[in-house]
Amino acid sequence: MIRHVAIIGAGFSGTLQAINLLRHDGPRATLIERAAAPAEGLAYGAAHPQHLLNVRAAGMSAFPDDPDHFVRWLAAHGVADAATAFAPRLTYGAYLRELLGEAQARSGDRLKVVQGEVVDLVREHEGVALSLADGGHIAADAAVLAVGNLPPHDPVGLDPADLGPPLYFGNPWDPRLTAGLSRDDTVLIVGTGLTMVDVALALEASGFAGQIVALSRRGLLPRRHAGGSAEWDRLDERPSVAASALVAELRARAEAIGWRQAVDELRPFTQSLWRNASDAERRRFIRHLRPWWDVHRHRLAPPVADKIDAMLASGQLQPVAGKTIAFRRVEDGVELTWRRRGSDTPETMRVARVINCTGPLGDLARAEEPLLRRLVERGMIRPDAQHLGIDVDSEARTIAADGASNDDLYALGPMTRGAFWEIVAVPDIRVQTWTLARRLSNAHWVGGEGL
Ligand SMILES: Cc1cc2nc3c(=O)[nH]c(=O)nc-3n(C[C@H](O)[C@H](O)[C@H](O)COP(=O)(O)OP(=O)(O)OC[C@H]3O[C@@H](n4cnc5c(N)ncnc54)[C@H](O)[C@@H]3O)c2cc1C
């Protein structure tokens, strides 16, 4: 019998897990967050005011059984055209903080929020025992890992022991990122995805007028959302599963209805397409299609895309396709040796600063986080087959090294990508966290949405 759940991490996933346990009259919860401010997580806390959500407000309700919740909240806070707005990420952080505050206020002693880092978890007395970095202990009947993404790898050829701030920022959310640059400087961003866009906007907003070179294997930039609302005719049937056939179908649909709708109409089926794909198909998708999928699927809010277009048009932002080979500290900065895509000839460029925007790492085998490292060493959790994160079953139970599902240890959010693939954004995570809370509350056997 689960009476007490310890939730590790209070970003969107963990915070909503705690709130949904309360909503479903489930077990009491202890929500543990190492950062000073719970609820915001990596995405919605330290954002710059210019950073907008990349999903329209109509898709960002925290609750799948109340899809207009965030739109109503925005409207109540005076936002016009709330449904089609791409709200600032800081505003979304305020929304989540308010939800958590309300839940705490009405929870009595059923929800406790603790600040601290969980560094270990063992089985003890028919439950789990968590150790905190400050020496504290928490006992519970089950635990939920809601730890978010792992930090990115350093780029190939870069030794962080040799290069550190201000020459190299391995963490693209470092508050010192834009400081101390002059207008003649060139900044190299490794990566051309959404994190690169965040960093380019932050540099521009800080007054940086020098050149920004953004380098990735293919040099692909995220596409933009269309303006207005996002209405489309939904597909009735799940499309064919083989990646090759899917690409052909997607192209044909894009011709017929436009690429945005062709990508968006797959959304309700992506998790089941992934679940039914073989390991070989998943591997092929990750190797060949993922970069294309990512830039079409995870799009920019129009005002953000306008700013990036202006930076491209002025030449301030220059995307290039290639691979890094070596980074060397030189007198006035860093010298990069790299190879342009399609060329065998190494080239060099000198830059004042290198910023790592290669995106999150999910490979547990390379994780340095004490908690995850210990759980892997002890065989309580294992990497999924594609090394995208933590292996879980369809009910979000983690899977041990011997292949058995753990009834007392669950995982939520982007680290469960290996099982669900489409599980990095709010519209998907809110369903996952709601479903698990209902199961832990024994509420899953009564009617679904709209309790
Ligand atoms: C910059 C950025 C912008 C995004 N924008 C959008 C968007 O506009 N729309 C959208 O739908 N999705 C967006 N996303 C996707 C995002 O992944 C999800 O929306 C969601 O925020 C993921 O939340 P999470 O709780 O799983 O992870 P996180 O937000 O990373 O939270 C994990 C939390 O766990 C804590 N933690 C980790 N380990 C421990 C430990 N051992 N002990 C205690 N605490 C621990 C961390 O400190 C952190 O606060 C964005 C993501 C990023 C990174």
Topology:
Blueprint: E1 4-8, H1 12-23, E2 28-33, H2 41-44, H3 69-76, H4 89-106, E3 111-115, E4 118-124, E5 127-132, E6 137-140, E7 142-145, E8 168-169, E9 186-190, H5 194-205, E10 211-216, H6 243-257, H7 259-264, H8 267-276, H9 279-297, H10 302-313, E11 317-330, E12 333-340, E13 346-351, E14 353-356, H11 370-377, E15 397-399, E16 405-411, H12 417-420, H13 426-440
Parallel strand pairs: 1-2, 1-7, 2-3, 7-16, 8-14, 9-10, 9-14, 10-11
Antiparallel strand pairs: 4-5, 5-6, 11-12, 12-13, 15-16
Helix pairs in contact: 1-4, 1-13
Bound molecules: flavin-adenine dinucleotide.
Question: Please, could you describe this protein's structure?
Answer:
This protein has 451 residues and is α/β, with parallel strands linked by helices. The protein has 13 helices and 16 strands. The protein is globular. It starts with a strand and ends in an 11-residue tail after the last helix. Bound molecules: flavin-adenine dinucleotide.
